[in-house]
Design goal:
156 residues, alpha+beta, 6 helices, disordered N terminus
C-alpha cells in the first residue's frame, strides 16, 4: 500500500509540474508598444520603397487592447498565426465582438520577439506592417502578447 501511495504522490507532483510548464501568460503591452509606434508616427519613416510622412500619435484604447490580447492568446493556444481565425473571423469582427464602435480596424502580428522595441522594429522592416502603423486614418490602438505572439490592433 505504501508503494501505491508513493507512486500516486509522484504522479501527482509530475502532473502538477507539467501544468505549471504549460501556463500561457497573456500581457497587455499597449503602453510600451504605443510609445515605440508613436516615435515613428511623429517623425515619419521609410516603409520599404515608400516614405510615410509624420502623422498624429495614437492613443490607447482598452477595447482594442482586449481584442489584441485575445487574438494573441487564441493564436498561441491553438497554434496558428494569421489575421483571420480558423473560423474565418477578421480583426474588425473580433473588435466589434468586444464592443468596439469604430469604423476602421487594422492589425499587425509578429512572433518570437522579446520586447516592444524589437517587435516594432520588426514591423517597421516589413513594408505592409510599417504602412499599417503609419496610416493616418488610425487614431487609437491596443496591443497584446501571449507566449511569443504579439498583436497590435489599430482603430478609428
Amino acid at each position: 500500500m505504501k508503494l501505491y501511495k508513493a507512486f500516486f504522490l509522484f504522479f501527482l507532483i509530475v502532473s502538477c509540474q507539467n501544468d505549471i510548464d504549460d501556463v500561457i501568460v497573456d500581457s497587455d503591452v499597449t503602453s510600451t508598444v504605443l510609445v515605440e509606434i508613436n516615435k515613428l508616427r511623429v517623425t515619419g519613416c521609410q516603409c520599404g520603397e515608400e516614405y510615410m510622412p509624420p502623422v498624429s500619435p495614437l492613443v490607447s484604447n482598452s477595447i482594442l487592447s482586449k481584442t489584441a490580447i485575445n487574438q494573441a492568446h487564441d493564436m498561441n493556444v491553438r497554434n496558428y498565426f494569421d489575421h483571420i481565425s480558423p473560423e474565418g473571423i477578421s480583426p474588425i469582427q473580433r473588435a466589434v465582438y468586444f464592443g468596439y464602435t469604430g469604423t476602421y480596424v487594422g492589425e499587425v502580428i509578429a512572433k518570437n520577439y522579446t520586447n516592444s522595441v524589437e517587435v516594432v522594429a520588426g514591423w517597421k522592416n516589413s513594408p505592409d506592417h510599417c504602412k499599417a502603423m503609419m496610416d493616418g486614418i488610425y487614431i487609437e490602438m491596443g496591443a497584446g502578447k501571449s507566449g511569443s505572439i504579439w498583436v497590435a490592433n489599430f482603430g478609428k
